[in-house]
Design goal:
Radius of gyration: 19 Å
Oligomer: single chain
CATH superfamily: P-loop containing nucleotide triphosphate hydrolases
CATH class: Alpha Beta
Length: 134
């Protein structure tokens, strides 16, 4: 399995590149800061863009509340993130990149989702088929 991580450019001049990343991406981490409500609000539009570009109803997705080490500065409640994840039918985790809390777990969850959606390649038969040209 090859895993490539790419940040999706948020600036308008990168629209074509962003759409290409969305189309080719097998799974997505949508990350917001628990200290900034607007960062969560912005994700609804991003999710809609992914749905539109991929032309699907669902895709592997983890909604990630980052900066959980800054509990005193929290402006997005844990329940609010979980409600949105339930609405979007995806998983939700809170992380701290700084304190290394749940960072590996988020990626493991996403990879598990991708693997469960990706069909297993057909096993090669040990018998080789013979070809006869007449």
């Amino acid at each position: 399995m090859v895993t490539a991580l790419r940040g999706i450019p948020h600036m308008e001049q990168f629209t074509a590149m962003r759409d290409l990343y969305m189309k080719n991406g097998q799974g997505f981490l949508l990350v917001y800061s628990i200290t900034q409500q607007s960062s969560l609000n912005d994700l609804a539009d991003l999710r809609e863009q992914i749905l539109r570009v991929k032309d699907v109803d669902e895709f592997p997705l983890v909604l990630v509340g980052n900066k959980c080490d800054l509990e005193d500065e929290r402006s997005v409640g844990r329940e609010q993130g979980q409600r949105l994840a339930n609405e979007w039918r995806c998983s939700h985790m809170e992380t701290s990149a700084k304190a290394r809390i749940n960072v590996n777990e988020v990626f493991c969850d996403l990879v598990r989702q991708i693997n469960s959606k990706t069909p297993e390649p057909k096993a090669r038969s040990s018998k080789q088929t013979k070809c006869c040209v007449v």
